[in-house]
C-alpha cells in the first residue's frame, strides 16, 4: 500500500500501478480486507485458445463470470490481432452476465447485447462459426435471450443457472 497524496492509502502492484488487494466475491465485488473471498484470477496469463475456452467455461459453470471475463480479457490482450474482437466480445458477454447477476439490469442487458453483436460481427467477417469449439451462434442466441429477460425483469439472475454453454 502507498499513500495517494490525499491521505488515502492505495494498494499497488510491483510496478506501482493501482491494484486492489481486497478479497473479492464470486461476482468480482470487493469485500472488506480480511474477509474470505474467492481466489483471484491471475492477470496477464497467456493461454492456448482452447485452454482459454475451457478455463472460462469452468469459471462460468462455477458461477464466476467476472473471473471468466478476466480469462477472455487475457486472450483479447495477448492473442493475434485478427482474433481480438472475438475475445473482447466473449469478455463482454461474461461481464454482462456478471452485471445481470449483481442486479444491474441495464448494464447487464447492454453488455450482453454489445458482446453478442461483436461475436456475430467477428463470425460474419471470418466465416468461422466454431473457433476453438465455441458455438458462436449458440452463444449469441443465449446472450440475446438473456438480455431480453434481464431488461424485462430487472431482478438479479443466478450466474450458475444462466451460464452459457460455450460448446467446447
TrEMBL record:
SUPFAM superfamilies: TTHA0068-like. Residues 1-27 have a biased composition (Basic and acidic residues). It comes from the Bacteria. Residues 1-46 are annotated as: Disordered. InterPro entries: DUF309, TTHA0068_sf. This is DUF309 domain-containing protein.
